[in-house]
Amino acid sequence: MFWLRKFWIIILVLVVDVFRAKVYAVPAKPCRILLDTDVDTDDFFALLYLLKLNRSEFELEVKLFSCIFYDILYMMGRDDIAVGVGGEGGILEDGTILPNVGGYLPIIEQGMTTAGGCRYRQAIPVGLRGRLDFDTNYGIRKSFLPQGSRKYSPLKQPTAQQVMIEKTSAGPITVFVTGAHTNFAVFLRKNPHLKRNIEHIYVMGGGVRSNNPTGCCPKHGTPHCHPRQCGDPGNLFTDYNTNPYAEFNIFGDPFAAYQVFHSGIPVTLVSLDATNTIPITEEFFKAFEQSQWTYEAQYCFKSLKMARDTWFDDRFYTSYFMWDSFTSGVAVSIMRNYGKNNGENEFAEMEYMNISVVTSNEPYGICDGSNPLFDGLHFPKFKLNKSGLHSGHVQMGLRDPFCFVENGKGKCKDGYTEEGTGPDSVRVLVATKAKPNHDLTSKLNREFFTNFLDVLNRPENTARFNLTTEFPHFRQAFYEPDFKNRTLGKPVVFDMDMSAGDFMALFYLLKVPVELLNLKAILVSPTGWPNAAAIDIVYDLLHMMGRDDIPVGLGDVFAMSQSDQIFHLVGDCKYAKAIPHGSGGFLDSDTIYGLARDLPRSPRRMCIL
Ligand SMILES: *[C@@H]1O[C@H](CO)[C@@H](O)[C@H](O)[C@H]1NC(C)=O
Ligand SMILES: *[C@@H]1O[C@H](CO)[C@@H](O)[C@H](O)[C@H]1NC(C)=O
Ligand SMILES: *[C@@H]1O[C@H](CO)[C@@H](O)[C@H](O)[C@H]1NC(C)=O
Ligand SMILES: *[C@@H]1O[C@H](CO)[C@@H](O)[C@H](O)[C@H]1NC(C)=O
Ligand SMILES: *[C@@H]1O[C@H](CO)[C@@H](O)[C@H](O)[C@H]1NC(C)=O
To answer: Hey, what CATH class is 31-213+226-359+394-457 in?
Structure first.
């Protein structure tokens, strides 16, 4: 999916054994898959799709970090799957990569800590319709997913790099990358000897010959309509004024994507070229609504419906595409055909193209303060060529004056998977188009739509859980104390973030007799130590204390004047960049050191409708 994560580092390793015994009457040769993804709605679709595949053919192992994924794996009865989180290591000035690099920051900005800026990430909305929604899965997670016993615990959590090393060392493996490429690229640079175990890389991301079909004016529209990202190769709907070329996953870390594409390992790319041809149609949405025979199908449908119901305009059906789920389908289908016949598969048309990932803009060899790989360094990092293609201007953020073109499309190409003929490009198999449904009588116009619904609704590998039957005594209670006969003390509003001191203070305030202090409301400030989704934890704390009556308000997600002038949902992280993403920072505050999982769950939740 095209969202990349702010700080949850998700590496999903699916080890899939595809028994090929049917064709060759020889013992089956296992085919293992490592999935490196992020956590948007479509990522869940991809994960569940892969988890649903025949388990006697596919043996799965997953590595990732996100409480949501823990819950999904628990629901699917897969607590055996390993989970890795970003470590605390860094990259030295000379380019030496220390073990256990966190992967919280793009490679070019990775220093010795997990704190840092947001030059690429700031294209992603932080609040509503952005990370807030994805981190809570629109609030659906709390009501629908059962909660397993696994949680993030500092010191015990294996790092993403450790898990990747372990899984790749074990034997041949295929990698799916459906988020930003940071972790995988760091792994490849750090462990070149393990490259030989990687058979193939499937990537969701980039746009090569794509024309964005969204942000266009209706054919017979009003004369006042200004086309937006319409026709762009990329999909940065928040940032096409500077960069109409990039797609979100690659834009998350262009330098990392370059490393992956140029690693020498064969790459198949499912780019916007193909995903633009498989929008979620109204017919598909209706068909999905009517075929929810498993718990996981219900969960996916609920998420999709929430995405639709909260869409910012009335063009959901032409703006929301199958990204990661489609990629999983295409990749699995190619693998079933043993990767032969130039990627022939059931769901997409394929074509070889020579492409490269743009990491900096021409002219090269300038030192204008935008490029941490060269600026101020006696020797460029990673021994890079001082006048090579990594040495130009690197996009600094939204409305970077270098890239910004007044009243026009921007000129920066950072993250563009550009077609080229020179020695800098690599031959990549690219999905160009989703195949139409071979059943012409079906209302579903894409072959993959039918397969997706079919797989999700299979009775095999289904969720073990049904909250109604498994927990017959479970009921959701809303606790509201009765203060009728008591004289209430001073009314107080508490404005907090989520460092340890804050929630201890909250408990303290709740313990003070109401005759003395009457806590009227809590405000959560996501400009400081928590992420906006931490509001869910505050709800749970209050629930535990029997105070579901106290309203909780979500503060502004941007510090003053950090929100973008043109597109208010995105903005800079000038102050927040001082807060580390890893241990001692967001990772701990957003999970209260993993303890948040032990809280009872409040029926209240982040709910945006
Ligand atoms: C799963 O695959 C195995 C081995 O190919 C096969 O015997 C079995 O019937 C399959 N199960 C289902 C439910 O299709
Ligand atoms: C859970 O079980 C109840 C009772 O058998 C049933 O009505 C309900 O549809 C089931 N829910 C799901 C999600 O399968
Ligand atoms: C890609 O490059 C190879 C040689 O590097 C060349 O033979 C081939 O024709 C090129 N393909 C395209 C589509 O440009
Ligand atoms: C560095 O890059 C320039 C420009 O692309 C090229 O002409 C030169 O040969 C490269 N030098 C090395 C040592 O690769
Ligand atoms: C409040 O006071 C009234 C009258 O003294 C009494 O009947 C009632 O039970 C009290 N309510 C509570 C919740 O204590």
So the answer is: alpha beta
